[in-house]
UniProtKB/TrEMBL annotation:
Keyword tags: Hydrolase, Lipid metabolism, Metal-binding, Sphingolipid metabolism, Zinc
Active site per the UniProt annotation: S253 (nucleophile)
Residue stretches making up the Neutral/alkaline non-lysosomal ceramidase C-terminal domain: 510-677
Designated gene of the protein: Asah2
Cofactor binding remark: Binds 1 zinc ion per subunit.
Domain spans labelled Neutral/alkaline non-lysosomal ceramidase N-terminal: 1-507
UniProt protein name: Neutral ceramidase
GO molecular function list: metal ion binding; N-acylsphingosine amidohydrolase activity
GO CC term (a single one): plasma membrane
A Gene Ontology biological process term: sphingosine biosynthetic process
Length: 678
């Protein structure tokens, strides 16, 4: 094959923008723990014109808006080379990245609308990562390996899983998929290019009290792998690209100690995830660490170490033709043949009451509980008044789900949920990547993989390695099995196209697999094209206005100085007169907010040893009154840091008023005093 890899920043605005994932309106960005990246991999046939692009981006999920804009940019740049059938865009599902990049109304509610700078950063980053991969294509080889990851996940809806038939459950040793699949890429001289790992776990080690933008546990795994392979480079630099992509993580949590009542400390591992005192709002899962930062590192390191081992031992070469199959489908109206006599249908999208309960990884508001198969007259009444009552057809179709939001019947100012959904498979020799538009639960994913594998087998393409890539192309929430759907925990209440959603997808992906196996992908119907709503920006974000420094101070001045000396494992901290970090994101796409610098006696100059992409640094912004704000930079000095003289620097932009109505953006910087690390 010809192989190319690329990585580009897609962080976007790190302040004031709601973070996407927990749907908690209080969880807005207030700084940066680690940068977000888009990682692109292109595999092409050296003789022919066939190629496949796989992108894993450190974002909550790929939205339809992001995908349509990326495809438009690729078309204008490369013509018909990169298309909706051969480009897979997957989100890692971090819950600590900026939101606001959706065109469907439901997602505007918790992310304060459609936020153009956030959307543009993601689109630009994805396109740039593909550009870099495209420019770096070289002859190479691919190897695949798989293995088991321990101590890194639990099933967060075990009572739903138990609804699946005993005969099916008995074939599996665990209620989560512990298998990691690694694709290793080297050039023809054996120089390492990169890897993709697929593993099913929610990147929710960082909980919904976090305000620092970061890529969570899987992002930390990428960071460790890239730091190891790009020796001597700053984080985010260097040619080796390591993507830790999402899979069927629907019911899989990294919070391995399980759910406890945060007020009493007792377990709340019950079908409703509720506590005797305080109800469901008190039931939260704990990770393995003492705090969320440590838990993120522990889980991330587990995943990294297994990937490293599988990568080093990978010897099974991937060879064979490239192909890709794609259809757009109206998921609110699919007829599924369950057997010769029985046909069922999917439904218009709707969310159930338990959607509002959230999960043990991030509880909801108003004390909704998981596992509600009855509606609540109080909330139903409010819903009917504000949003309209669901139609009889939709209620009947979704049974036993009590509908909270009948999103498929809500169209103001735009539809609240998608009807047109992408289904897609890309095959690289013996590897088939199923790009799925949401979060399949453990058992849903197993059924889908098995169905696709048997479809390939029955058409003579035996021994395919089938992997699920999650959160691709358009976000449609969760996909549970029919049996899990019956008990209506969070994942089932969020299975928006009704009880037969999984059966519909299995039928559709079987059709794609058959087309690939029979080399008939060009005969697949394209399906109805998704809409691109005529909305460029609608936002409740505060506007960026002129800013001030306190009297006698200027931007970048130190307000609280570092100490003169620190030991390893201590935290060096400095506070500056700051400015809104959004100014920087809206001016320079790849703005670096901070550096840690070490004094070199040899060259008598300061050398940058860390930037803001490092997981050892934290950048926090806090807004004060009268247009003033502060920035605090922390360096958590790791064990093994070289002793010597260091300083912390800050780089920002402030808004300055020049006329009555006009402001300009002015760059500035600040530095702490020098301090000794001993």
């Amino acid at each position: 094959y010809l192989v190319g890899v690329g990585r580009a920043d897609c962080t976007g605005p790190v302040a004031q923008v709601p973070l996407m994932g927990y749907a908690n309106p209080d969880q807005v960005g207030g700084g940066l723990l680690s940068r977000l990246y888009s990682r692109a991999f292109i595999v092409a046939d050296p003789q022919g014109s066939r190629r496949v692009v796989f992108v894993s981006a450190d974002i909550g999920m790929v939205s339809q808006r992001v995908r349509l804009e990326v495809l438009e940019r690729l078309r204008s740049k490369y013509g018909e080379l990169y298309r909706q059938d051969n480009v897979i865009l997957s989100g890692t599902h971090t819950h600590s990245g900026p939101g606001g990049y959706f065109q469907y109304t439901l997602f505007w509610i918790t992310s304060k609308g459609l936020i153009r700078p956030a959307l543009s950063s993601i689109v630009n980053g994805i396109v740039k990562s593909i550009d870099i991969a495209h420019e770096n294509m070289k002859r190479g080889r691919l190897f695949i390996n798989r293995g088991t990851v321990e101590n890194s996940q639990i099933n967060r809806s075990p009572f739903s899983y138990l609804e699946n038939p005993e005969s099916e459950r008995s074939r599996y040793s665990s209620n989560t998929d512990k298998e990691m699949v690694v694709l290793k890429m080297v050039d023809e001289d054996g120089h390492e290019l990169g890897l993709i790992s697929w593993f099913a776990v929610h990147p929710v080690s960082m909980n919904n009290s976090n305000h620092l933008v970061n890529s969570d546990n899987v992002g930390y795994a990428s960071y460790l792998f890239e730091q190891e392979k790009n020796k001597g480079m700053l984080p985010g630099e260097g040619s080796f690209v390591a993507a830790f992509a999402s899979s069927n993580l629907g019911d899989v949590s990294p919070n391995t100690r399980g759910p406890f009542c945060s007020n009493t400390g007792e377990s709340c591992d019950n079908p409703q995830s509720t506590c005797p005192v305080g109800g469901a709002a008190m039931c939260m899962a704990k990770g393995p660490g003492n705090d969320m930062f440590e838990s993120t590192r522990i889980i991330g390191q587990n995943i990294y170490l297994k990937a490293k081992e599988l990568y080093e031992k990978a010897s099974q070469e991937v060879t064979g033709p490239l192909s890709s199959a794609h259809q757009w489908v109206n998921m609110s109206d699919v007829s599924v043949e369950l057997n010769a006599t029985h046909t069922v249908k999917t439904c218009k999208p709707a969310l159930g009451h338990s959607f509002a309960a959230g999960t043990i990884d991030g509880v909801g508001a108003f004390n909704f509980t998981q596992g509600s198969v009855e509606g609540d007259p109080f909330w139903d009444q409010i819903r009917d008044q504000l949003l309209g009552e669901p139609s009889y057809e939709t209620k009947a179709c979704h049974k036993p789900k009590p509908i909270l939001f009948s999103t498929g019947e809500m169209t103001w100012p735009h539809p609240w949920h998608p009807d047109i959904v992408d289904v897609q498979i890309a095959a690289i020799g013996s590897l088939a990547i199923l790009a799925v538009p949401g979060e399949f639960t453990t058992m849903s994913g197993r059924r889908l993989r098995e169905a696709v594998k048997s479809e390939f087998d029955s058409h003579g393409t035996r021994g395919m390695n089938v992997v699920i890539a999650g959160l691709c192309n358009v976000y449609t929430h969760y996909i549970t099995t029919y049996e899990e759907y019956q008990v209506q925990r969070y994942e089932a209440a969020s299975t928006i196209y009704g009880p037969h959603t999984l059966s519909a997808y299995i039928q559709l992906y079987r059709g794609l697999a058959k087309a690939i196996a029979l080399n008939a992908t060009q005969e697949l119907s394209r399906g109805p094209e998704p809409p691109l709503f005529n909305v460029t920006s609608v936002t409740l974000l505060p506007s960026l206005s002129a800013e001030n420094a306190p009297a006698t101070k200027t931007f970048g001045d130190v307000l609280e100085e570092v100490r003169g000396e620190y030991r390893e494992k201590e935290v060096a901290e400095v506070t500056f007169v700051g400015a809104n970090p959004r100014n920087s994101a809206e001016n320079a796409t790849e703005h670096n907010f901070l550096t840690v610098e070490r004094y070199s006696n040899i060259s008598s100059s300061w050398r940058v040893v860390l930037n803001d992409a490092s997981w050892d640094t934290r950048f926090s912004w806090s807004k004060g009154t009268r247009g003033q704000s502060n920035v605090t930079i922390e360096w958590h000095i790791p064990a093994g840091t070289a002793p010597g003289m260091y300083r912390l620097r800050y780089f920002g932009h402030y808004k300055k008023r020049v006329y009555l109505l006009r402001t300009i953006t002015v760059p500035f910087e600040g530095s702490s005093s020098a301090f000794q690390v001993t």
